[in-house]
């Protein structure tokens, strides 16, 4: 029993001490551009460019069969 406790104790201490908090903000973004690229040799994808209220452009990839309208708005989480 002592051997098990001696093995588990360091693991528990490491687990408790390595916790990190990530602070995020929710911001509004608007879809401003849609491009199609050949990201993989056998598969095309869409590149969606979103413009945020913080004057930064965000880029995401989406499957070719998903449909989006320019001017669509949504909220995204960004790191503080």
Give an overview in words:
This protein has 80 residues and is of the alpha+beta class. It has a single domain, classed as OB fold (Dihydrolipoamide Acetyltransferase, E2P) (Beta Barrel), CATH 2.40.50. It has one helix at residues 2-17; strands at 24-40, 43-52, 57-63, 73-79. It has a four-stranded antiparallel sheet, with no helix packed on it. A hairpin with a 2-residue loop joins strand 1 and strand 2 (43-52). The radius of gyration is 22 Å and the shape is elongated. The model has no long low-confidence stretch (mean pLDDT 83).
Instruction: Tell me the Rg in angstroms.
Output: 22 Å
Give, in order, the helices and strands. HEEEE
Task: Catalogue the unreliable spans.
Answer: none
Number of strands: 4
Give the CATH architecture: Beta Barrel
Rounded average pLDDT: 83
The portion of residues assigned to helices is 10-25%
- Looking at the structure, the CATH topology is OB fold (Dihydrolipoamide Acetyltransferase, E2P)
Q: What order do the strands of the largest sheet run in, or round the barrel if closed?
A: 3-2-1-4
The tally of helices reads 1
Please tell me the total number of domains. 1
What composes the largest sheet? 4 strands, antiparallel
Our measurement of the CA-to-CA distance between the termini, rounded to an integer number of angstroms, reads 46 Å
CATH class: Mainly Beta
What structural category do the secondary elements indicate? alpha+beta
Overall 3D shape: elongated
Task: Quote the beta fraction.
Answer: over 45%
